[in-house]
């Protein structure tokens, strides 16, 4: 009987000690000086705010995106509201890319009120990738996927854009070896639902840029490693055939402007800028040549030198 009473007393003592310990833990903050209480509560609130803070757009454009927390999200109102894009971040950076992955690869996405689109790829095995487009036609409420290329060599350059709500293009390059690679343009006539490959230009130099100005007229500009002159190809039949464009220079500018940029339509003609390439030092590299074409890109004539747009 004494042993039973002693055991009960010990059990009650243990329960009492546990209760005192828990009370002491819960009361610690209350026993702190008021300033320290406020500091602890402030830190706790800050931690909650960090977890709940909205994404920050990568720029100040009305339509922008964020890659915070390894999630791709887009906004159509400068960050007031966000839509998550259902895609793995890694799929946006596959191929030959060594950037910091804090921003998307330039050219690999297209943002407008009518269409938002992102090029991505998944490993197809044997050194190839399936290249696809994730796109939305209703500002991110629903998403679609379309296959651009079932099996494409490991990508280097990638670019997507739309000329209008139905016609768009994708430019891809891959299988790079030193200063050579494969390049090709794909076009869509149904807003990105289906894609068809154009014929390639036959040029295997590294691509600098490419694109279409309308449904029939497109360009591919080559030469990124020490180019000595512009190397521009043009199609006037939607990519069925490609022709090397003729670019006429004043003699003094021949070795200066060496890399053609994508032309633009202005009224009834085309305007194109040709830059100095990666090593240009004419007037500090701050000048480009402006050229005009009256025959949809087949021939070009020099107009003037223009300052480099520092925002590019």
Structure description:
By secondary structure, the chain is of the alpha+beta class. It contains 2 helices and 21 strands. Strands 16, 17, 18, 19, 20 and 21 form a 6-stranded mixed beta sheet that branches. The termini are far apart.
| Overall SS class | alpha+beta
Share in helix: 10-25%
Instruction: Report the C-alpha radius of gyration, rounded.
Output: 30 Å
Integer average pLDDT: 87
- Low-confidence stretches at least 5 residues in length (pLDDT < 50)? 1-7, 23-32, 35-40
Q: What features would you highlight for this structure?
A:
single chain; 312 residues; alpha+beta; 6-stranded mixed beta sheet; 4-stranded antiparallel beta sheet; 21 strands; 16% helix; globular
Annotate the secondary structure layout:
Blueprint: H1 2-31, H2 34-52, E1 64-66, E2 73-75, E3 83-84, E4 109-111, E5 116-125, E6 128-136, E7 144-153, E8 155-162, E9 168-177, E10 180-188, E11 196-197, E12 207-212, E13 218-222, E14 231-235, E15 243-244, E16 246-248, E17 259-260, E18 264-266, E19 269-275, E20 287-293, E21 299-307
